[in-house]
């Protein structure tokens, strides 16, 4: 009885609730969602979009010591509280011991947004503020008219400096006729707000996507204790009154054009990277390599690395099953030889070394009809000859062959290295990186390993800290590839690693900011000796990198409140005391010391990376340095001159030019190192403390730079990176994930029925800033990145879901391409419509099979596709077609190859759908790869 009553009562309540809800909805319709999308992204700050289209990509806030001598408040590392308020507004606060910030992000109505910023010092200390209220999306404004009510618009922006590139100096109001509609910008500030064109800026923040930088530059806004600073930024958007035309969907059943060499390297130019010092292609027939090939190795007794490297090329790259090698011990001179074929084998070292053999890491490689020979004065040189041979071989239908050639080669710089961080999850990734370094002929790896799991102090380990066993395996793999491993453990600053998990705070110089350890505390040095001792046991190194950079960047150093502080003590006293102590300790074990350079330079002595408080103090520190300390002189700007190299040289110190991932930085700094007589080049990576393969999705350019660094350091070439005759990403990809070089058949997909967008000035950027140059008068079937495509006649396929003027005339909403054939891979010649940051899914290719199963391929920027403008790179996309715009910026299309998880299943159709509102998608060609792709279409299963 009770159960029946309860059910009846519940049913009545449900009906009443349904009636009440329906009645309420009838009286008060649900409010339409706001067109504003507002976020605070922590390290990346403010993000603002309007109807899905980004207007502000990010913001930034730094409070620094004068002349950027140290960071007091860094938005990237600062924790913030985020409070959601009525109407979609956000209130954000963040503070540390030095500075407090507050944001209010308010959508005032459907067309108006307001940002209010307030910041103030919490201590009376010298400080400057750099605040970018917004990195504005330049895609909306490029080649569009604008008006300014206060200020003079420069005819052309200056090549360098944010202030010099200010679009409207001293502006208070700006109005753009943007691709989104009219956008008005107002600012309220007591100091000058810059709206700078950063599209050609070489700094990493400007490379993510084209932006205008809006805010206070450091020093422009006075920052004083007790006086808050404030800025209000107001945005108004007026979208066009005329509604955009709806874009059609398209479905086609194209012709499939069989081709025997759908993928082939036969036509690839003979380009060796790093470029050899001397290479002469001679007359005659190529030398063919076949199963059962005979070969011999002459090397020092016990040296097996050359045999293993050559087998990796023959069997791993070409699947050539050679005979067992004939291995012979070289004489006392240690001269090495590798011979394939019928060439005569000489065991003796030459009585007089040829000129080329007196250079670092030299080798000679000869190919003629009788065979291949690699000669070198060292095993390392012979190893580099094998790396060159791997790039000489081409398919010939029955195996591989090499054209007749004579190469005499050696390194322009003796030290050629890369710096990286290991992690537990990244061990497979790091192993592949070592393969890239070997291909680039690098001979040193600076492995920053302070975050490893050390037995003496397990309390400071992070969840992703690498084990000593895995670290030891990486060290061994380096040496197997003739790469000398150098451990790096940061001392005495950047020592957050020893305070991880709130440990060892009693050893911090400034416990309020645990960043540097107390050099004067005997327990600190005992701790450091324990960690360095374990690293020495793992690495058995010839050189140890002690860091020593940016020691005074955070916290008090020295700290008068530290119990080990001595009156009158200076930062120089502590820095040099630490360095001399550890240098002597390492030297007693026969190990050299390496350190970063900035603590020994002042800003007047170099363009950046200078942390000494004065020129006099920098000179004092350099004079105190032991002369056998190697200085890793780091500068990351695209400067043509690097005077610090000569400064250190005059003080009797050896240097290694240390670069980051800006191509021009690598080019110019390597040239300066050669001219200065420096030891060499060290390519650094700063992609987080625990990188793994996933890091490539957003930081690929940091690792493809290994190829550039290896080439410039080895070859001494001088041309600009944009003039290099090879695809850096392709070179990197072949070294990182080697694949078989065998040819594949397939079929080209004819897209002419659906290509509707004429490329000429398609986005309103002006003549020549488009893809019109892709189309030539010749054959529509052309090869890009080793894949043959059938180009549509003078038009492209474009897909977009963007509003208004962001999409060209003829863009589609979706595209369905009926296939009816099998394929092991699908190759796409493509790009995004607009330049957007890495990690954005521009479109999706869905694959439908005749049996009803499905698969999908997300076309993500930085992974499988890139914008057609700029020099962005992608993990799994090679440069296919390239050209230059009238202003010298690069343009191009990439080739991606999707691996079919079900190659035996016939594919019914491909669906292409745009995803990101801004990015859009451009498709110029599709090729099916596999012998089965030449078969006729499979009958049935199609629907129109």
**What's the number of extended β-strand segments?**
48
Q: Structural class of the helix and strand makeup?
A: alpha+beta
Q: Beta-sheet strand percentage?
A: 25-35%
Helicity range: 10-25%
Straight-line N-to-C gap: 60 Å
Put simply, the count of helices is: 13
Radius of gyration: 31 Å
The parts where pLDDT drops under 50 for at least 5 residues are 1-27, 932-936, 938-944
* Overall mean pLDDT: 91
Instruction: State the major sheet.
Output: 8 strands, antiparallel
User: What general outline do the C-alpha atoms trace?
Assistant: flat
- Strand line-up across the major sheet: 6-7-8-9-16-13-12-11
Report on this model:
There is one protein chain. This protein has 944 residues and is of the alpha+beta class. Helix content is 19%, strand content 30%. It contains 13 helices and 48 strands. The strands form nine sheets. It has an eight-stranded antiparallel beta sheet with strand order 6-7-8-9-16-13-12-11, with no helix packed on it. Strands 29-30-31-32-33-34-35-36 form an eight-stranded parallel β-barrel, surrounded by six helices. Strands 18, 37, 40, 42, 45, 46 and 48 form a seven-stranded antiparallel beta sheet that branches. Helix 7 links the parallel strand 31 and strand 32 (543-547). The longest helix has 26 residues, at 2-27. It is flat. The model is unreliable at 1-27, 932-936 and 938-944 (pLDDT under 50).
């Amino acid at each position: 009885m009770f159960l029946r009553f309860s059910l009846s009562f519940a049913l009545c309540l449900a009906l009443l609730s349904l009636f009440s809800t329906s009645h309420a909805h009838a009286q008060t319709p649900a409010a339409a969602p706001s067109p504003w999308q507002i976020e605070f992204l922590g390290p990346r700050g403010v993000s603002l979009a309007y109807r899905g289209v980004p207007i502000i990509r990010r913001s930034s806030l730094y409070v620094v010591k004068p002349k950027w001598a140290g960071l007091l408040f860094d938005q990237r590392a600062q924790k913030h509280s985020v409070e959601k308020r009525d109407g979609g507004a956000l209130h954000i606060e963040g503070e540390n011991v030095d500075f407090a910030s507050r944001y209010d992000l308010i959508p005032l109505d459907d067309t108006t947004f307001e940002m209010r910023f307030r910041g103030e010092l919490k201590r009376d200390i010298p400080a400057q503020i750099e605040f970018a209220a917004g990195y504005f999306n330049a895609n909306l404004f490029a080649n569009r008219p604008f008006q300014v009510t206060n200020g003079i618009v420069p005819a052309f922006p200056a090549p360098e400096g944010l202030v010099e590139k200010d679009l409207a100096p001293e502006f208070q109001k700006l109005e753009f006729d943007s691709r989104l509609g009219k956008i008005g910008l107002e600012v309220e500030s007591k100091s000058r707000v810059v709206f700078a064109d950063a599209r050609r800026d070489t700094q990493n923040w400007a490379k993510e996507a084209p932006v205008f930088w809006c805010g206070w530059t450091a020093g422009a806004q006075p920052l004083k204790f007790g006086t808050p600073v404030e800025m209000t930024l107001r945005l108004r958007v007026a979208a066009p009154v005329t509604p955009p035309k709806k874009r059609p969907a398209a479905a086609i059943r194209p012709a499939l054009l069989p081709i025997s060499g759908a993928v082939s390297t036969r036509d690839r130019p003979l380009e060796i990277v790093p470029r050899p010092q001397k290479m002469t292609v001679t007359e005659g027939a190529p030398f063919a390599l076949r199963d059962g090939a005979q070969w011999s190795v002459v090397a020092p007794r016990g040296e097996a690395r050359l045999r293993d490297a050559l087998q990796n090329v023959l069997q791993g790259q070409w699947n050539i099953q050679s005979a067992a090698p004939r291995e012979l011990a070289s004489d006392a001179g240690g001269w090495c030889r590798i011979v394939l074929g019928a060439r005569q084998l000489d065991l003796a070292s030459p009585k007089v070394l040829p000129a080329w053999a007196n250079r670092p890491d030299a080798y000679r490689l000869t190919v003629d009809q009788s065979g291949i020979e690699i000669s070198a004065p060292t095993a390392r040189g012979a190893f580099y000859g094998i790396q060159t041979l791997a790039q000489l071989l081409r398919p010939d239908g029955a195996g591989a062959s090499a054209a007749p050639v004579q190469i005499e080669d050696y390194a322009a710089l003796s030290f050629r290295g890369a710096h990286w961080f290991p992690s537990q999850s990244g061990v497979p990734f790091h192993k592949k990186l070592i393969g890239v370094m070997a291909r680039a002929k690098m001979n040193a790896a600076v492995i920053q390993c302070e975050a490893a799991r050390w037995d003496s102090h397990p309390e400071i380990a992070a969840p992703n800290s690498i084990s000593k066993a895995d670290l030891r395996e990486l060290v061994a793999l380096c040496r197997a590839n003739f790469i000398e491993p150098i451990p790096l453990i940061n001392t005495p600053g950047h020592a957050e690693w020893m305070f991880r998990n709130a440990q060892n705070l009693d050893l911090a110089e400034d416990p309020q900011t645990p960043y540097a350890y107390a050099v004067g505390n005997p327990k600190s040095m005992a701790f450091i000796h324990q960690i360095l001792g374990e690293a020495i046991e793992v690495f058995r190194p010839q050189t140890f990198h002690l860091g020593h950079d940016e020691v005074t960047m955070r916290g008090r150093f020295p700290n008068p409140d530290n119990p080990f502080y001595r009156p009158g003590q200076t930062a120089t006293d502590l820095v040099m005391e630490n360095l001399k102590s550890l240098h002597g300790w390492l030297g007693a074990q026969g190990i050299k010391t390496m350190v970063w350079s900035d603590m020994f330079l002042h800003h007047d002595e170099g363009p950046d990376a200078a942390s000494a408080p004065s020129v006099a103090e920098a000179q004092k520190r350099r004079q105190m340095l032991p002369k056998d300390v190697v200085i890793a002189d780091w500068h990351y700007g695209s400067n043509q001159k690097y005077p610090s190299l000569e400064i250190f040289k005059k003080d009797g110190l050896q240097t290694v030019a240390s670069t980051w991932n800006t191509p021009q930085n690598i080019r110019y700094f390597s040239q300066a190192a050669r001219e200065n007589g420096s030891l060499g080049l060290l390519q650094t990576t700063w992609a987080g403390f625990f990188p793994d393969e996933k890091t490539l999705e957003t930081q690929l350019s940091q690792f493809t730079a290994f190829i550039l660094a290896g080439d410039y350091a080895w070859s001494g070439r001088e041309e600009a990176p944009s003039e290099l005759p090879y695809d850096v990403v392709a070179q990197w990809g072949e070294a990182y994930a080697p694949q078989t070089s065998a040819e594949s058949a397939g079929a080209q997909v004819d897209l002419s029925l659906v290509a509707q967008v004429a490329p000429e000035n398609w986005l309103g950027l002006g003549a020549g800033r488009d893809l019109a140059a892709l189309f030539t008068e010749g054959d529509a079937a052309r090869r890009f990145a080793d894949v043959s495509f059938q180009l549509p006649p003078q038009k492209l396929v474009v897909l977009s879901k963007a509003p208004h003027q962001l999409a060209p005339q003829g863009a589609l909403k979706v595209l369905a391409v009926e296939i009816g054939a099998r394929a092991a891979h699908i190759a796409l010649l493509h790009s995004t419509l607009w330049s957007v940051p890495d990690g954005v899914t521009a479109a999706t290719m869905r694959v439908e099979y005749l049996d009803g199963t499905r698969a999908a391929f997300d076309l993500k920027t930085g992974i499988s596709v890139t914008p057609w403008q700029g020099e962005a790179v992608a993990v799994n996309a090679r440069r296919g077609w390239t050209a230059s715009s009238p202003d010298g910026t690069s343009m191009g299309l990439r080739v991606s190859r999707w691996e079919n998880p079900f190659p035996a299943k016939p594919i019914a159709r491909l669906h292409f759908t745009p995803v990101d509102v801004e990015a859009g998608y451009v498709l110029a060609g599709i090729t099916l790869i596999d012998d089965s792709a030449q078969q006729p279409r499979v009958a049935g299963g199609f629907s129109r």
